UniProtKB/TrEMBL annotation:
The record marks 189 as: Activates thiol group during catalysis. This is Glyceraldehyde-3-phosphate dehydrogenase (Phosphorylating). SUPFAM superfamilies: Glyceraldehyde-3-phosphate dehydrogenase-like, C-terminal domain, NAD(P)-binding Rossmann-fold domains. NAD(+) binds at residues 13-14, 38, 85, 130, 329. SMART domains: Gp_dh_N. Keywords: NAD, Nucleotide-binding, Oxidoreductase. Pfam families: Gp_dh_C, Gp_dh_N. It comes from Methylovorus glucosotrophus (strain SIP3-4). The active site is at residue 162.
Amino acid sequence: MTPLRVGIAGLGRIGRGILRANHAALAEGRFDIKVVCDVMPIDQVAYLLAHDTTYGKPPFTLDFQGNDLILGDKRIRYERVDRRRRPTEDSFAALREFDLDVFIDATGTASIADLRAVIERKVARKVVCTANIAGCDMSMVYGVNHEQYDPLQHDIIASNTCTGNALAPVAYVLQKHIGIEYARVITIHPALSDQRALDGYHPTSHLGRACAASILPTSTNVAASTVLALPELEGKLDSLSYRVPTEIVSIIDITATLTRDTSRDECIELFEKYARGDLNGIVQCDYGAWGHQRASIDYLGTEFSAILQMRHLTVSHGRQLGMTLMHDNEVAYCCRVLDVLGVIDRVKAASKLKLVEPLRA
Ligand SMILES: NC(=O)c1ccc[n+]([C@@H]2O[C@H](COP(=O)([O-])OP(=O)(O)OC[C@H]3O[C@@H](n4cnc5c(N)ncnc54)[C@H](O)[C@@H]3O)[C@@H](O)[C@H]2O)c1
């Protein structure tokens, strides 16, 4: 079977992470990434791919020649775009040449109209967006709702958010077996590239404060993202985020009132069962190292959406639950984006349907 033909717009932390994750697994890559776009000159893309402060050198050689990036022995076309200009008919036509099955938008700047245009101008058969833009046909959390994907209805698929991918599997298990009456969720999140290194202007004023100097309480969409995958939790979740001066690995702390009495033992048994079964590879139960608590940086490069800190799972007064989980907000998320592509690929193969008619019909 021919692998999915993929394009990526936006080679920031997530776009480069997807490239890296795809090409690290197999020498030639799990999916056939044909073209990638950003606003940078190609030498800067190569430089950033080859030198990653967080993850170090990539597990493949890297070079560029003309308009091609060369990862190992694989050539990928690079299209430099001007962010200030709307895409033209010529730029759509240039991308159409790659006959893409999936176009990943990892820019963080696209509107739903931009994503629709990719489908309407037949640039690609499906769009996967790395943010929950309002108007997407589906927000997929792999392991929770990926079986609801319908190729005839869903053209623009959000791969939810990093924190949504972490919280939703845990909320799914609790809701299915015990029931959540209300939960307050706190994310303790590393600084992101939308923050300022030193004090300066930011449309969200507090995110303009020097990111290495403070813990910055800010809003987060983790509750809303989780509800997109689990609509039955509508109105039952609240959330707040603290941006902290670290580089990678996020923590989610959950305080929940459950709908019936339970025990720590029952919850442990439940999560252990899912970690070995339906959520294998998505959720991991971690008891520390020889009884010692791991530090967040110890989860650098881990692919699990949610690593449950089992020593800190508490149940008090029968139905008050406390839980903490950690996740590598880049690597784990990029692996889930590849899992979303895997779902699109499997459904395409199983349904014997073309995703849509040929692009160049
Ligand atoms: N960083 C994370 O932990 C994380 C996790 C999950 C999802 N996300 C989401 O993924 C998206 C990207 O986040 P990021 O952290 O990679 O941001 P980033 O700022 O590191 O990368 C964005 C990249 O997109 C490029 N870009 C912007 N507009 C463009 C355009 N019109 N065409 C082509 N390239 C364009 C920028 O030059 C930049 O290289 C955001 O929506 C973010 O919310 C981020």
